[in-house]
Structure formats: C-alpha cells, structure tokens
Specification:
The chain is an alpha+beta fold and 487 residues long. The protein has three domains: 213 residues, no CATH class; 56 residues, no CATH class; 195 residues, no CATH class. 44% of the residues lie in helices and 10% in strands. The chain starts with a helix and ends in an 8-residue tail after the last helix. It binds zinc ion.
Amino acid sequence: MQKVLTLFWDRYKQTHGNHEIYSRAASGLIDMSMCLPVLYHGDEGRGLKKKQVMIASTHGVIGAGCSHQNNDLGHPSDPSKDPLRLNMIGNTLLNHFIQFAAPIGLYNKSPESFDRLLDLQAKEFRKLFYEGAEINGRRFFIACIGVKGDAPFLVKAGKFERSFAHKPTRPSSKKPAGGVCHLCCAGKEDLHPPAPYEDYGSVRPAWRNTVGLLRPYSQPSPLLQIPLNGDGFMPEKLFQYDLFHNWHMGVGKTFISSAVCICLELVDETIECAFETITEDFKAYCARNRESPYHKSLTASLFGIQGSFQSWPEAGWSKGDFTRLLNSWFEDYCSRKVVGHTRDPLCLKCAEGVALINACIHGLYHEGVFIPSERAVDLARKGLRFLRLYAELALECFKRSKKRFPLIPKGHFLHHSFLDLLEQSLSNPDGWTVNVLIYACQSQEDFVGRPSRIARRVNPRTTSLRVLQRVFLAVRSKLWPKGKDDP
Ligand SMILES: [Zn+2]
C-alpha cells in the first residue's frame, strides 16, 4: 500500500504540485506513503414518496480498475510504469463510505442545516489531513482532492452564482446573463470582451483568460475549508466537472439524437420506415457485438421527433450506457452507410465526430488513474476536435433552419475537461497526466441508489439515522458473511 501511495503522490505532483501535501511533506509534517487520496460525492436519490434524499459519500481515488481497462496496463516487472487502477468496479457498498443521508424536507426548510453538514464534513477532512487517525498503531492521513456530483449538487454545495441555470436564453435581454461556469466567466454577458461558452473545442477560447478571474460565489462554501492548494489559487477548483453527466447524460445524448436524425435523411423513406430500417441495423450490430440494449428499438418517440421531423430531437433515455452503445453503433453504421454514400458535409461531419469522440472516451476508459502524457495529448485533441465539429454542425444546421445540435452548458464543461487534459499533458510531456475519469460519477450513481432504497423503507421521522445504521449493517454482512467470523 505504501508503495502505491508514494507512486500516486509522486505522479500527482507532476501536474498538481501546489497541493498543500507537498509543502507539509517537505516540512516532515505528513507521511505521503500513509496518505489516502479520496473524493467527496453528493447527489439526490429518490426517497419515500419519490421525495429527494441527499446522499453524501467518500471513496478512494485508487481502486480495482474499470471493466474496460486493459488487463495488461500494469507492469509487474517495473512498478514505476504502473498507471494505477481506477475505482470503478466492485460492490459500491464496499468501496464507498456513506457520510450522511438527508431528506429534502430537512435542507429545503432550513438551508443552514445543509451548510452545517458540509461544515462538519470539511472540518473532519481537515482533521484527517492535518492530524490523521491512528489505526492499530499506525497513523493514516486522508487528503480529499476533489468534490464531484451532478451540476445541481455542485451549485448547491459550492454556493455558486454562475452556473448552468444562468445560461442566456435569448439573443439579448435587459438583465445580462450571469455566466454558466464556476471556473470561468463563459456566458457572462456583461463581460468585455465577451467570452461565449458556445466556443466549443477551441484550444484558445476567449473564456480561457477569465479562468479564476472572478470568484463564482459571494459566500464561500463550507467545503472550501478542505485543504487543497497551498497557494490559495482558485479554491473553487475543488469542485470538479464530471464526464459521466456531461457526456453520457449530456452532450452524448444531444449529439447522437441530432446526428441520427441528420443521417436518417439519407434513408429515402418515411420517418417510421427510416426508424424501422435503422432499428434492424442496430439489432444486428448488438447481436454481432453481444450487447444487450436497454431499449430494443430506435423509434421517433425515443428520439423526441414523433411530432414532426422538424422538432428538436430529445434523447428520451435515462441510461448513460445506452448513450455509449448508440454512439458505438452509429460509428459502425456511418462507416457502412454514410461515408462514401454522400457528399453532404453535415452527414460527413457526424461520421467524423462520432469516430473521434468514441476514440477519446474509449481511450480514457482503457487508461488508469494516470495516463502517460503522450497518450493524454492525443485523447484530449480528439475530444476537442469533436467539440469543434459539434459547434460547426450546430452552425450549419442553424443556417439551414434545422433544429439540431443544441449548444448546452454541458458542452462547455466537457471543453474544460478536455482542455485541462491537454494543458496538463503538454506542460509535462514526458510524465503522467491525471485521468479525468477519476471525477466521473457512474459508480456513485449506483451507490446512491442503495441508501435511497433504504430511505424508502424506514420511518420518515428518523430517515437520516436509520439509513446510516442499515447501510453499515449491509456493509458488515458483505464483509463478513454468515459463518465467517468478525476479525
Ligand atoms: Zn468555464
């Protein structure tokens, strides 16, 4: 364990050298080989009577890997080349530690109680970082290197006044829009020169100069007490964007639903017949690749265009994995039915875009916690090139009066993830770059479902306590099944 932790902090230093752990280690105040890097996650699950229940948890950055990661990533003969494994497989009850469960009635009626929970949380993290905890005579430390969750959680926990909820909704308005992003001033309409968030994929977007320019809050979040950067620069960087919500549940859905509708125009039939044709193709692809799709048929209603082919497509599925599968199928479909069959740049850009983003996302899932910078540069460029194509598709569709490829704030958040990956790897070309997937939330989506289910089965007056108790009992029965003695 100590070798792995030393390796982690040595690598992390290459791109995050201003983390406070390094100055403390240099002063002999912390032993990095005994310091566990963790992430803090929050999300609302569905509790009793479908009312939300906020679940917060902590999990380790390093784990047993991910189902797509190459088995040969490790180098047993040379541990210095081991990229370390992501924490994305295994029973989530066993690799997450629940912090609290709070029914919405509690934090909606008295928002200060939510702040109080976060304050307690941050103070615990401070204590675990500065003092550590002694277990069996050995002192362990914990460093929380990020807070993650969906955009509503980040806004609530970070007290952000610039967020997705403040995107411009019309060409001009009396009150300028306040900006969509807590890291930069993108979409803030009273800014000169302007920094549009729709400038997807650019390596030098106008908003780049506004990163860290203005604090995104009036009152700091209690979570900002968590030790992070020793120099105090951009404390809001504690709150990380999540590839799962921004791609699988965001741009991945808007892209594939628009791109399929564009390419359907090549199928010379009615909407229903065209969808039947591509459904057959989709089923054959799934059979060839042993995929079990959540939705068996591709229909106009699933793509939200049942009213008219002129409607905005709305991806009507809620499973992130279905977005992955559709994009994989669509790449294959384009290679057979689009490329070489049309000269329409719209269709050809869809084909190029899906190949680029699949290579980028699949590539990230095949890496570990760290990516050799030379490969990270390539993955980041593919992601950025895809975003550029998406913006070009949106513009071309706008010119042709087609409602396709909406420019949503999640595209800007993806832009941050890919640009960060590029800048980190270029600044450290012979070293390692942190994989953005450590901040992705799909495992946490699974975990949140477990205490939420319990919350639906306990007395509503004691939900917070009973959920914690029952989660701990469930963990205990997983760790020590019947017949196996407690240690
Ligand atoms: Zn931004």
